[in-house]
Amino acid sequence: MTNLQLKRVVVTGLGAITPIGNNLDEYWQGLITAKNGIGKITCFDTSDYACKIAGEVKGFDPLAYMEKKEAKRMARFSQFAVAASKMALEDAQLTINDDNANDVGIVIGTGVGGLSVMEEQNEVLLTKGPGRVTPFLVPTMISNMAAGLTAIHTGAKGPNSCSVTACAAGSNSIGDAFRLVQSGYAKAMICGGTEAAITRLAMAGFASAKALSTRNDSPESASRPFDADRDGFVMGEGCGILILEERESAIARGARIYAEMVGYGMTCDAYHMTAPVPEGLGATRAIELALKDGGLAPDQVSYINAHGTSTPANDTTETKAIKRALGDHAYKIAISSTKSMTGHLLGGSGGIEAVATVMAIASDIVPPTINLQNPDPDCDLDYVPHESRKLTVDVALSNSFGFGGHNVTLAFKKHN
């Protein structure tokens, strides 16, 4: 398919469930007012845990979006996905019916899926025997079920898939959905990432890997991307969903357009299970490919929503990648890590961060990086410390990097 045949793709709806707000407005207002969503873990006893803090979603009621019986048969990550997708469809004023169902698809990624269900049912197996394990174990646990259940609850019958690329899963899903609309396989896509990994096993595993912050006495200052005193990431949970539409179709139905999606770059380090390749070469190529895909020059970029995990390895490596990809212009743009407020949602992070990136374009406000008290000398770019900033954002990128060496950059710009 030649470039002349590619469709333009726009963002017409957004949905978010996060540690700082359970809808789009709450989430965005939380970001631009530097709200902190990190606190002591309340969903299980952390007495024996090295890390006792996380960014929990508070006050989420699945029954506002589904029947009680349905909610009981759905893992938390899928509940988030169904709810945020319904929000995004409502925001887009897009109704799925018999006339358009085949033209609307879904790609929703996740890192670990229904891990909580696996943990619970393993306990049942060990204490009560195999005959007591629920028949819903597999269909609630498997990672693709967020996309599958969202289709069931929305009626979308078009392309349906799930990216499972660790912390890049949400961004890969948005990129893959972009390609489907761009190439004409769908007129609209529900896409993003979801995660609910604040569980006993996940927290123990990441803590054993020395990946988590242990700043337990000061949860609000634990997630500190690009700061010299950072000591690991803070787990978060939630979901971010975008509605991507073929531009002509969106205009024809009078849709409000937040931004245009123009580029998708993805690469692999092929280097290490968890560590990024030195000098950020894989991440550099992802940024460069997203710019090339969107027909953008480095000096057109106004803002980058960084992966910015608050781990020693990521933040310096990502900084090097941005410098390599953008050259001297890297010092002239605004960069922020919203993980400083939400924590790291693993496979869900690309979803909520793409929402933040699109909102930065739509509102010309850049969210801050909080807790940046003692900047790392190796992280010497403009990370918008402490407070949000009014800035005309014409082009913005969103970075996501995952275990396994997955690198993804998404490119958006103002629609005209």
From TrEMBL:
<keyword id="KW-0444">Lipid biosynthesis</keyword>
<feature type="domain" description="Ketosynthase family 3 (KS3)">
    <location>
        <begin position="6"/>
        <end position="414"/>
    </location>
</feature>
<protein>
    <recommendedName>
        <fullName>3-oxoacyl-[acyl-carrier-protein] synthase 2</fullName>
        <ecNumber>2.3.1.179</ecNumber>
    </recommendedName>
</protein>
<dbReference type="GO" id="GO:0006633">
    <property type="term" value="P:fatty acid biosynthetic process"/>
</dbReference>
<dbReference type="InterPro" id="IPR017568">
    <property type="entry name" value="3-oxoacyl-ACP_synth-2"/>
</dbReference>
<dbReference type="Pfam" id="PF00109">
    <property type="entry name" value="ketoacyl-synt"/>
</dbReference>
<keyword id="KW-0808">Transferase</keyword>
<dbReference type="InterPro" id="IPR020841">
    <property type="entry name" value="PKS_Beta-ketoAc_synthase_dom"/>
</dbReference>
<dbReference type="Pfam" id="PF02801">
    <property type="entry name" value="Ketoacyl-synt_C"/>
</dbReference>
<comment type="function">
    <text>Involved in the type II fatty acid elongation cycle. Catalyzes the elongation of a wide range of acyl-ACP by the addition of two carbons from malonyl-ACP to an acyl acceptor. Can efficiently catalyze the conversion of palmitoleoyl-ACP (cis-hexadec-9-enoyl-ACP) to cis-vaccenoyl-ACP (cis-octadec-11-enoyl-ACP), an essential step in the thermal regulation of fatty acid composition.</text>
</comment>
<dbReference type="InterPro" id="IPR014030">
    <property type="entry name" value="Ketoacyl_synth_N"/>
</dbReference>
<comment type="similarity">
    <text>Belongs to the thiolase-like superfamily. Beta-ketoacyl-ACP synthases family.</text>
</comment>
<feature type="active site" description="For beta-ketoacyl synthase activity">
    <location>
        <position position="167"/>
    </location>
</feature>
<comment type="pathway">
    <text>Lipid metabolism; fatty acid biosynthesis.</text>
</comment>
<dbReference type="InterPro" id="IPR016039">
    <property type="entry name" value="Thiolase-like"/>
</dbReference>
<dbReference type="GO" id="GO:0004315">
    <property type="term" value="F:3-oxoacyl-[acyl-carrier-protein] synthase activity"/>
</dbReference>
<dbReference type="InterPro" id="IPR000794">
    <property type="entry name" value="Beta-ketoacyl_synthase"/>
</dbReference>
<dbReference type="GO" id="GO:0005829">
    <property type="term" value="C:cytosol"/>
</dbReference>
<keyword id="KW-0012">Acyltransferase</keyword>
<dbReference type="InterPro" id="IPR014031">
    <property type="entry name" value="Ketoacyl_synth_C"/>
</dbReference>
<keyword id="KW-0275">Fatty acid biosynthesis</keyword>
<keyword id="KW-0443">Lipid metabolism</keyword>
<keyword id="KW-0276">Fatty acid metabolism</keyword>
